[in-house]
Specification:
single chain; 136 residues; alpha+beta; 5-stranded mixed β-sheet; 4 helices; globular
């Protein structure tokens, strides 16, 4: 089912989501597109705040969008920033991924014009992470 959405298509949906970014402080816009295990896509963008700390990243916006909708199973996420380097997810977003995703969850990150793409699993990006299993 998840193969129905290619990495390229997911990156295009992340780029579309980036257009919704509210980032008047950093001027760094980010978009994310999160693919569920049953083939649905949830988008997110970064949303900043004058008080700075309430700022939320594109990845978490996409996850919370899906979680609110009752979805709990995810296969991959595409992220696109507006800088020269691919937009790697911050530690807080990796922790949120750890809550809902297995180690084989795929993270595809890209830069401004899509000329640089890095694809890794959650295991690769956040080894030895703390998660729900630790509270058993
Ligand atoms: N940001 C994201 O949305 N995702 C990332 O992966 C890295 C950082 C946002 C947060 C903030 O609005 C801006 O980028 C600069 O840090």
């Amino acid at each position: 089912m998840t193969e129905m959405v290619s990495n390229e298509k997911l990156l295009a949906l992340a780029a579309e989501a980036r257009d919704h970014s509210y980032s008047p402080y950093s001027h760094y816009s980010v978009g994310a597109a999160l693919l569920t295990k049953d083939g649905k896509v949830y988008q997110g963008c970064n949303i900043e705040n004058a008080s700075f700390t309430p700022t939320i990243c594109a990845e978490r916006t996409a996850f919370f969008h899906a979680i609110f909708d009752g979805v709990r199973a995810f296969s991959k996420i595409a992220i696109i920033g507006s800088g020269e380097l691919p937009a790697f997810p911050c530690g807080v977003c990796r922790q949120v991924m750890s809550e809902f995703c297995d180690g084989d969850f795929v993270i595809i990150t890209s830069n401004r014009d899509g000329s640089r793409v890095v694809t890794e699993t959650l295991d690769q990006m956040m080894p030895h992470r703390f998660g729900p299993k630790d509270l058993l």
